[in-house]
């Protein structure tokens, strides 16, 4: 059904100080925002995410992260830094990131885009296949030029020289063009460069440095939303959070070589009790 104000043209007549002119109708603006949201590649699971529906509970860092996300929306596009949401799986990082993306598209008319990093790299790789008639820049250009980009699950991809160079190209281009980016990651921003599960090691030193320059880091933990029972609420999430913190109080994993007692008891009494197994840990393979 055509809009009564503009009769479906997208322009409505207005008169001011005896001068008659036309301006964009609100129906056109709503339609344009809806189309922009459809083009943003937000996964169906997160299609209705907003900060008003995000469950908050007495968790200071989580509350601070949501408050910072609200300020980002209010200030956009006059923002100088993006956001980097850091924490374990299931604590709502993607929900917060998508909520910001949807808000700036619907309220500010921005061009936004969402990508899981692994999916983005897979699509870029597919352009090397001659059967796929898509050029690499056809994929990269929207990613680099979006007013706001969300890159979800940073660091989850297997590190390689190609991955590092590709991600650096995307991030550096957006940095130079002053286009804000929101990242989510499960990897801690640890200063220990020997930790293989740190964000710095997963993304590389150059990109890690650039992230600190272009983003505000929001690191928090919390209850796992995926473990929330049906009709669960804030109290259940707070309980899950506290229970998880208690479990994380276990002794840290060793980073030294594994050791084991070898031989029967009467032999061990006459020999050094421990021998190093030349194996640093991880999954055991065949033929070891």
The description of the largest β-sheet is: 5 strands, parallel
Number of strands: 9
Query: Mind telling me the CATH class of the domain at 43-224 and 231-246?
Result: Alpha Beta
Structural class: alpha/beta
What oligomeric state do these chains adopt?
A: single chain
CATH fourth-tier homologous superfamily of the domain at 43-224 and 231-246 = P-loop containing nucleotide triphosphate hydrolases
Number of helices: 10
What is the helix/strand order?
Answer: EEHHEHEHHEHEHHEHEHE
Which CATH architecture of the domain at 43-224 and 231-246 would you pick?
3-Layer(aba) Sandwich
Shape verdict: globular
Assign the CATH topology of the domain at 43-224 and 231-246.
Rossmann fold
Proportion in helices: 25-40%
Radius of gyration: 25 Å
Describe this structure in words.
With 288 residues, the chain is α/β, with parallel strands linked by helices. It has a domain at 43-224 and 231-246: P-loop containing nucleotide triphosphate hydrolases (Rossmann fold), CATH 3.40.50. The chain has helices at residues 26-38, 60-75, 93-108, 117-126, 136-145, 161-176, 199-203, 205-214, 234-247, 265-268, and strands at residues 11-16, 19-24, 82-86, 112-116, 148-152, 181-185, 215-219, 259-260, 275-276. The strands form three sheets. The chain has a five-stranded parallel sheet with strand order 4-5-6-3-7, with helices on both faces. Strands 1-2 form a two-stranded antiparallel sheet. A two-stranded antiparallel sheet has the order 8-9. A hairpin with a 2-residue loop joins strand 1 (11-16) and strand 2 (19-24). The termini are far apart. Residues 249-288 have low confidence and may be disordered.
């Amino acid at each position: 059904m055509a809009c009564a104000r503009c009769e479906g043209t997208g322009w409505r007549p207005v008169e001011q100080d005896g001068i008659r002119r036309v301006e964009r109708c609100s129906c056109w603006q709503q339609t344009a925002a809806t189309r922009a949201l459809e083009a943003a590649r937000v996964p169906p699971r997160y299609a209705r995410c907003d900060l008003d529906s995000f469950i908050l509970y007495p968790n200071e860092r989580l509350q601070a992260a949501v408050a910072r996300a609200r300020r980002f929306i209010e200030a956009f596009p006059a923002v100088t830094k993006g956001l980097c949401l850091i924490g374990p799986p299931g604590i709502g990082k993607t929900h917060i990131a998508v909520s910001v993306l949807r808000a700036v598209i619907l309220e500010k008319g921005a061009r936004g885009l969402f990508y899981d990093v692994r999916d983005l790299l897979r699509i870029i790789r597919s352009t090397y296949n001659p059967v796929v008639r898509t050029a690499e820049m056809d994929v990269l250009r929207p990613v680099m030029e979006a007013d706001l980009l969300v890159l979800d699950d940073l660091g989850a991809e297997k590190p390689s020289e190609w991955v590092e160079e590709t991600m650096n190209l995307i991030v550096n281009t957006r940095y130079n063009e002053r286009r804000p980016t929101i990242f989510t990651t499960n990897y801690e921003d640890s200063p220990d460069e020997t930790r293989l599960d740190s964000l710095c090691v997963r993304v590389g030193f150059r990109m890690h440095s650039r992230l600190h320059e272009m983003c505000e880091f929001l690191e928090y933990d919390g209850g796992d939303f995926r473990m929330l029972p049906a009709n669960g609420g804030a109290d259940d999430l707070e309980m899950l959070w506290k229970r998880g913190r208690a479990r994380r109080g276990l002794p840290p994993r060793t980073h030294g070589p594994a050791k084991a007692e070898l031989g029967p008891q009467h032999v061990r009494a006459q020999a050094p009790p421990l021998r190093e197994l030349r194996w640093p840990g991880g999954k055991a393979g065949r033929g070891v």
